[in-house]
């Protein structure tokens, strides 16, 4: 795998998530017609409506527990020259577009205002050709009323226009977030830790300054 770009959209009903991942993979071997990967399935979640390069695909999910093995058909993947690498092989990277819907991606607390989002990402077993800050990029789009208090990966940040983005040197197994649907905001654990660190530094500065003034 050379790179992956993901877009995750939570519908207005706030119950499921649409996932679109663009992979750069390859080279694919002559006659290779499937690519193997893994996906996490949490209790209450299911993967539906899988499409590979715009065509509905029969995807095999095997195994027990949360981690499931996935086998994707790649017979229609277009290589650099527009050929079909699943039949003829490729000399360089090939593009692989995967779309699917995650049912049950959102869980709602009893008060109806706090939500938890967990979106499993299909990761390919092929090791990356290279690692770097831009190997994986993702955009998370949520309903307008949602206010995110914390997210995973922890580098998930608001882009200022209603979305959240993240860039990593690896493809994570999932994207998750905690939010409120009533427009309110509460700091999550990362925010609390950041505030504690800031207050500690301010307190340390004030104490040090006072000692210096006393010694002067």
Task: Report on the architecture of this protein.
By secondary structure, this protein is mainly beta. The chain folds into 2 domains: 3-185, Immunoglobulin-like (Sandwich); 187-216. The chain is built from 2 helices and 16 strands. An 8-stranded mixed sheet has the order 5-4-8-2-1-12-15-14, with no helix packed on it. Strands 6-7-3-11 form a 4-stranded antiparallel sheet, with no helix packed on it. It starts with a strand and ends with a helix. The model is unreliable at 76-88 and 188-199 (pLDDT under 50).
**Biggest sheet statistics:** 8 strands, mixed
What series of H and E elements makes up the topology? EEEEEEEHEEEEEEEEEH
How many angstroms separate the termini?
62 Å
Shape descriptor reads globular
Provide the structure class: mainly beta
Strand order of the largest sheet: 5-4-8-2-1-12-15-14
